[in-house]
């Protein structure tokens, strides 16, 4: 049986990937741009913007990664508005990774939709266990992530 060379295939395909980060804080954008420049990173850019003003980027995304966003600098109403915006503009089958899982991050918000109506959760249990390789701290961190596909 033929088995693809996963490492080689991932390496070959990585040149096809373009990553765009959206960051609201100008200081973090400058820091990220300095790192991109200093390490001569290719196929990556960071834009300083409120995600709600970048419908174009959200609509074209195949993968969105959100790490502890909104809760530290937006009130509950603005957080709900951001989730409403992202739900409205993500394309079907877009993958979404959220830390912590979206159910936890949005539990206190008054949303006009349910997470289950918008997203299908993808189980990562076995992947987390494999990645953690017995390290309970890593396993605990991995289990806080939510991995989803837009319906």
From TrEMBL:
Coiled-coil stretches: none
Source taxon at top rank: Eukaryota
Pfam family, one: TehB
Molecular functions (GO terms): methyltransferase activity
SUPFAM superfamilies, per the entry: S-adenosyl-L-methionine-dependent methyltransferases
Residues covered by the Tellurite resistance methyltransferase TehB-like domain: 8-114
Protein name: Tellurite resistance methyltransferase TehB-like domain-containing protein
Native source species: Dictyocaulus viviparus
